[in-house]
Amino acid sequence: MNISYVLVVDDDPAIRGLVGDALRSEGYVVDLAAHGREALDAMRARRPATVVLDLMMPVMDGFSFMEACHYEQLCDDVPIIVISAVHEALQRMNEVPVHACIAKPFDLDDLVRTVGQFARPNGRAH
Fold it and tell me: Tell me, what CATH number does 29's domain have?
């Protein structure tokens, strides 16, 4: 596992880009996925230090992603940070193992700090 590698999963390209750019500017290596199925493919290829995950997405939502991810033992030791605008979805977080939940709209600096609790930027001490 690369301790600086973060996988960002969100169906909104603007949010994916914004979060990805912010993390890259802090020294993280970032991959982007538009839905859970793309995220699973990315995790099969390379295990991230942490995942930033939207819940409500087409093709495969965040809940289905987490179920498949744990079934395949891809994320047993990978912290998951959930971001979601849907209050009901955030209330379901006790059903799945996540390390942090952030409601949309979110403060980008807060998200970057939260990622920093689980991953380390290239060349920086944790």
Answer: 3.40.50.2300
Instruction: Determine the pLDDT at residue 88.
Output: 57
Residues in the chain: 126
Tokens of 18: 């914004």
Mean pLDDT of 18-47: 96
- What pTM was computed for the model? 0.89
SS (H, E, C) the chain: CCCCEEEEECCCHHHHHHHHHHHHHCCCEEEEECCHHHHHHHHHHCCCCEEEEECCCCCCCHHHHHHHHHHCCCCCCCCEEEEECCHHHHHHHHHCCCCEEEECCCCHHHHHHHHHCCCCCCCCCC
> What average pLDDT score do residues 22-26 get?
95
What is the share, in percent, of the chain residues with pLDDT greater than 70?
A: 86
Domains contained in the chain, number: 1
